[in-house]
Amino acid sequence: MLNRRRTTRAFAALAITTCLTATACSSGSGSQAGGDSAGGVTTIVVGQKPTPDQAAALKTWTDRVAEFEKANPKIKIQGSEYGYDVQTFQADLAAGTLPTVVAIPYTDVQGLIARGQLADITDEVKGSPVGSKINPEVLKIVQDPSGKVFGLPVQAYTMSLDYNRALFKQAGLDPDKPPTTWAEVRTAAKAIADKTGKAGYAMMTTNNTGGWILTAMTYTYGGTIEKVDGSKTVASFNDAPMKNALTQLHQMRWEDNSMGNNFLYNQKQLQQEFAAGNIGMYIGTPGDYRDEVTTMGAKGQDIGVAPLPLDSPDGGTLTGGAVQMFNPKASPEQIAAAVKWAEFFWLKKFTDSDHAISDAKTANADKVYSVGLPTLWLFDAASQAQYNAWIKPYVNTPQANFAPYTKAAPSLKLTVEPPVAAQKVYANLDSVVQTVLTKKDADLDQLLSTSSKTVDGLLAN
Amino acid sequence: MLAGRTAAQAVSPESRRIRRLPGRLAARLVRWVRRGGLSALIFMIPLLVVFGVFSWWPIARGLVMAFQQTNLVEPAQWVGLDNFRKVLADPLLMVAVRNTAWFALLALIFGYPAPLALAIFVRELRRGRGLFSVLAYLPVVLPPVVAILLWRVFYDASESGLFNTLARAVGLGPFQWLQDPRSAMPSIVLEATWAGAGATMIIYLAALSGVRSDLYEAAEIDGASIWQRIVHVTLPQLRTILLITLLLQIIGTFQVFTEPFLFTGGGPANATTTILMLLYNYAFINGDYGGATALSVLLAIFLGLLSLAYFRLTRGWSTT
């Protein structure tokens, strides 16, 4: 009996060992860089291939691939519908299933750079005729403190005050003259809340978005979040600008009751409420228009976009953008090929009339893209006027509604996200914003002091 | 001489056994196959593969990763106990532990007796037992995400919100529900109890059907009320299953994630940040897999010790 047990155990152990070994071996096999280089031909996998329901975009993508491969016979493109997802990114990176090049949101860039999870493309960008012309202020989005470049910005914007023009009208406000200071925001929010019963102003507060928006608000008051001194970084927000921002929120919430009843919004939830016509104003981006109109049912005519209110001559506007990242496990040949592709597919449309027109035409035809949304131009002003003329026949967005933003955009002082551990800092500030909005007796000085000490601890590690 | 012979005799059979070993092994193998050992192993293989790939291997890798720092690009660095030190020094850890314990306590007080009461209620019904069982089980059928999104609407803090309208009808409210740090966790427990009671109720109903009816008859003859029958017959008869469901509930509540993640994202002001939410943030928001796995190892050790203590404490109470 004992022997039989031993034999069974031996077989079980053998089976387990075999399974584990097989698993271990399988995890080490396969492409680790989303492509390969063989026989002088470099194969790369490119993300964001349009899905079959986007027929026009898919056709354009296929044509572009053929055009690119014809011009670059040593590069082979494999398409992937992969899109960045914060919850699966790490697993894909570990498993080697990440494409060679794919878009990532701007807010995650600095965290990925700090963890060494993006490929360094400094030489490729600086040596390229297109990449080297990118506005240096915009390029800061993808640079580490030493100036190395870890991604290719293909679109840039500044944060904006997005507002519901229909609610403005109902509240007796002029939708063509949105608020330009925080005092005006407060007055408008109260008018909307009193006259329409909707939230005059609302704010994202969860999944680190509360810290993100509070940072944007603090910048408009002339404040900062972090102070970098050599190799040491400390929190620098325990001062008047952030306190002013929090005081503004506290007054709108508890004195005016103009912020509605929900203080736990993430980005998408807030956009949905805004699209449903339940929110008068919020801090977002000009690009929010697209999702709100094409997938959330908002009327384009009701959405207005204005620059962020500024309450200080030192006030800055937080920037953002769409960034193409490159797989850190890819070979130098693949990185070079992928940068070439990203510039061809994502940037050439800004400098080449054929690409600009066919891209705008396709976006218009598929109805899931909004053509003519305000952006922060990546290159010089002359090229912007030329590009706007090319795409004019295909614009499907109400340009007059964006006028307050587009008029002010060129003169805005641009600011970037906190350079060190931005997401951790935002997570901490989420709690500060939520406390102000859910506790009437919140002690702002105490909150800022405690949060500043905690962030100092985070930055020291 | 005698000693020499004995020694020779002692060695000789041993060598013969060694020489016969392959033959014996082969015979044993044949016997093992004939008795169904091979079939059992073949049937076990899929299970072993699934457990190996999806459970044991990740557990082993997680354990190793708790002592490493990795960005999943370059080779991982051994950092000893640094990840554990970092996690234990995190000021949010104590907040998360307190919140998780608060959730567990509320779930124990309100969530644990609910399915038992439901099961006894359904069992006592003379008619409509099937209908009530279905109604009680219905929330389990709803996908958790759908149920939570539905309850988010119910918890609308405005005066026109569903629960606030109901509360107003009896002269209460309006309440802030999820929007107030004090009421957010009880609100989550309420939904979790509603969502989970049906599944446990089915277990209790099955166990109740195994209670001998003559015990109830004897109690009735002795003039026992319904309450006395529950206390003196039902509960003692169910105590083994009650102890197991209690342990499962405690382990489950310490791993609560979906509800606070979808309801509040851990807010307001960290009032619903649980240990698993903190772990999630370590891994997916901060990309710190070392910290995340160190925290999960600490949680596993704690739950293991808790289960051990629980079994030791309740050993005498069980019927088996």
TrEMBL record, chain A:
Listed InterPro entries: Bact_solute-bd_prot1, SBP
Instruction: Answer whether the UniProt record assigns the keyword Lyase to this protein.
Output: no
The highest taxon in the source lineage is Bacteria
- Mind listing the UniProt keywords for this protein, alphabetically? Signal
Q: Does the entry feature the keyword Electron transport, yes or no?
A: no
Signal sequence, start to end: 1-24
Question: What is this protein's record name?
Answer: ABC-type glycerol-3-phosphate transport system substrate-binding protein
> What organism is recorded for this protein?
Kribbella caucasensis
From TrEMBL, chain B:
- Which Gene Ontology cellular-component terms appear in the entry? plasma membrane
Q: Kindly list the biological process annotations in GO that this record carries.
A: transmembrane transport
Gene3D superfamilies recorded: MetI-like
* Top-rank lineage group of the source organism: Bacteria
Pfam families given for it? BPD_transp_1
Membrane-crossing ranges are: 38-59, 101-122, 134-154, 184-207, 238-257, 289-311
Q: Which UniProt keywords apply?
A: Cell membrane, Membrane, Sugar transport, Transmembrane, Transmembrane helix, Transport
What's its membrane topology?
Multi-pass membrane protein
UniProt family annotation: Belongs to the binding-protein-dependent transport system permease family.
What is the protein name for this chain? Answer: Multiple sugar transport system permease protein
Q: What is the organism of origin for this protein?
A: Kribbella caucasensis
